[in-house]
Amino acid sequence: MTRQQQRVYLLALCQALFLTCAVASVSVAAIVGSELAPTPWMTTLPYGLQFAVVILCAYPVSRLMGALGRRPVFLMGACFAMAAGVTGYLAIRGGSFTGLILSHVLLGIFITHANYYRFAATDGVEAELRGRAVALVTAGGVLAGILAPLLTLEAGALFEGQSFAHSYLIFSLAGAITFLVMLAVPGLNAGGPAPEAGKASQVPAVPPAMAGFGAFLAMYCAGAGYMVMNLLMVQSTLALNSGPGSHTLVGVAIQLHVVAMFLPSFFTGRLLERLGHGRVLALGFLLLALSALTGMPGRAPVFVVPSLILLGVAWNFLYVGGSAFLTLCHSPERAHRIQGINDTIVSGLAAVGALTAGALYHLLGWSGSLVLSLPVAGVGLAMLVYWQRAAAASGVRTGEAPES
């Protein structure tokens, strides 16, 4: 096994731990928030601020990696996860909404660091293989999709009377394991090409004249997919959280959704190689629209759960495809700057979805919120058509390296 393969697999494990925290927070944040928030509209505020922090930290963290290297910055991020777990536990035990907000702010800082795992996997990798590297690291979320809802539910059952307080300790445990794994990941350089990388990895695969719009398109695809996914995933916990056994139903629904988000990663990389980035991204937007149409009839599980599954697959194609496409639009020298801008925009759009989820749910309802995803998909498809035509006119295969 090469050092690059070892790096991808260990980063996939770290991705699984990071996403276990992220999924656990989705499973409990809105519910705990509804118990501690002083007013209903503040129910999803902690989860929304979690993403607001990611916006503020994304660019500085990326530039810090350029200065210090990825390993020390990733180790620093793991420490924030440990602090977030302890803070959340104490906040729920003490009934402190302010403490809950602080916990999610700390978790947001950890998420900022962990979001760069997928880019760390592409350092020094040839252009045609970067999509597969991003996809394989993202595939670590499959384990998170299985474990996180079960862990939060079991923690609530084992410590009945403490609500979800013990669920927050998952953050601390995951952070501690991540810290140890990161010490063993090989080749975590400052983001430049690895020594064994050839000249092909030194320049953008997309011609410079098209790289600007290509990067913007990649950011829109990943960001728009994340915004809609966050909005509807958070709202689904509110839509399903009514009546006896609703906690279990929410956990199962989120579990299926998250598995649908990450299971396609095992073949998304190959789809990107065979079909091209443009077609995979277009398929993601089509699935996004289909997800909205599937969930519109109502809040019954028969509508909400299939909608969440389609939403998960759509997110995968848009997020993995957009992230992989971005790596073709910049040189290694500009990697940290472009990746920092990308994650700031993607996290910003994700925060919009999270922050507005509660308010839009009370204002428009579940079905009304689903309608909002249709124009988002329409704009994305229109830009992809434009890119397809521009790429064809320039002799570039959509989202891939120019033919020699």
Main beta sheet: strand number and arrangement?
Answer: none
Supply the CATH class.
Answer: Mainly Alpha
Shape: globular
What is the CATH H-level superfamily? MFS general substrate transporter like domains
| Quaternary organization | single chain
Instruction: Give the strand tally.
Output: 0
Structural class, by secondary structure, is mainly alpha
CATH architecture: Up-down Bundle
Q: Specify Rg, calculated over alpha carbons.
A: 20 Å
CATH topology: Growth Hormone, Chain: A
The fraction of residues assigned to DSSP E strands is: under 5%
Low-confidence parts lasting 5 or more residues at pLDDT below 50? Answer: 190-202, 398-404
Count of alpha and pi helical runs:
15
- The H-and-E topology, N to C, reads as HHHHHHHHHHHHHHH
Binned, the helix content reads over 70%
- When the domains are counted, the total is 1
Q: How much is the average pLDDT?
A: 84
The CA-CA distance between the termini, in Å, is 30 Å
GO molecular function, one term: transmembrane transporter activity
Domain Major facilitator superfamily (MFS) profile: 207-404
Protein name: MFS transporter
InterPro entries: MFS, MFS_dom, MFS_trans_sf
